[in-house]
């Protein structure tokens, strides 16, 4: 059994520069036994640790999802915004770091079978949703229509353009992109991501929505989906807070009566609706 208190050693096997401030690190656990026992659910996160620098929670972009999964690499996409993340993005292939996890409650795929799934993300909030898109497409016959809606502040901020184009070519899968500000080459929607929700062809009797990104964007999107007829219980949000222990002990990520690290990061919208936008939460 993997000890949740101790980081496992991992090696960087690939470093992908997504933008000047965003890097994807592809990791492999150095212990072969741990490598084959480590698997994660879409929407979970790891704590990445650098000796002498610190530890931060990072969403798992992709990784093994069962002991039968031979994808033994872990992808984490990191934006350089603080002391630890600025150090992480400087790592190169061959460098070592610590990995604790996986932690948290992921996306409710057990409730998505037979339903249309609408994934709505903003900014780098798309990273926690990438793993669920991969899983939906891996078992495509289990789900109905798939919509992937992504919004960014500026068109230059959109990463993984090739991936969105690949997804758009999959059966009954629709990709909608938006940028608040766009240059002349931008061929998608210019404006807020919420402006795309009316294009979802939403069947409210058989739809489930998964939202990830800045909280104002998620709140506005959830409320618009409710206006369009989707039940609040069919809306799920991935929340972010200052998580430090990842096991519900330190209290830094308390969100109402819940802890984001342990009870989330994915929450059903009715459980957090009253807290979003409330000072102190």
Helices and strands, with pairings:
Blueprint: E1 8-19, E2 22-29, H1 32-37, E3 45-50, E4 54-59, E5 74-79, H2 83-88, E6 96-103, E7 116-122, H3 127-138, E8 146-154, H4 161-168, E9 173-181, E10 189-190, E11 207-212, H5 215-227, E12 235-238, E13 254-255, E14 258-259, H6 260-263, E15 266-268, H7 269-272
Parallel strand pairs: 7-8, 7-11, 8-9, 9-10, 11-12
Antiparallel strand pairs: 1-2, 1-6, 2-5, 3-4, 3-6, 12-15, 13-14
Structurally, how many domains make up the residues? 2
CATH topology of the largest domain: Rossmann fold
Number of strands: 15
Note the gap between the termini. 34 Å
Q: Which descriptor suits the 3D outline? A: globular
Mean pLDDT over all positions? 92
Oligomer: single chain
The H/E string reads EEHEEEHEEHEHEEEHEEEHEH
Radius of gyration: 18 Å
Q: How many DSSP helices?
A: 7
Q: Which CATH class of the largest domain is shown?
A: Alpha Beta
Category from helices, strands and their pairing: alpha/beta
Question: How big a fraction of the residues is strand?
Answer: 25-35%
Biggest sheet, in brief? Answer: 7 strands, mixed
Low-confidence stretches: none
**CATH architecture label name of the largest domain:** 3-Layer(aba) Sandwich
Q: Main sheet: which strands, in order across?
A: 10-9-8-7-11-12-15
Helix percentage range: 10-25%
CATH homology superfamily of the largest domain: Nucleotide-binding domain of ferredoxin-NADP reductase (FNR) module
InterPro entries: Cyt_c3_hydrogenase_gsu, Dihydroorotate_DH_Fe-S-bd, FAD-bd_FR_type, FNR_nucleotide-bd, OxRdtase_FAD/NAD-bd, PyrK_electron_transfer, Riboflavin_synthase-like_b-brl
Domain FAD-binding FR-type: 5-109
GO molecular function: 2 iron, 2 sulfur cluster binding; flavin adenine dinucleotide binding; metal ion binding; oxidoreductase activity
Pfam family, one: NAD_binding_1
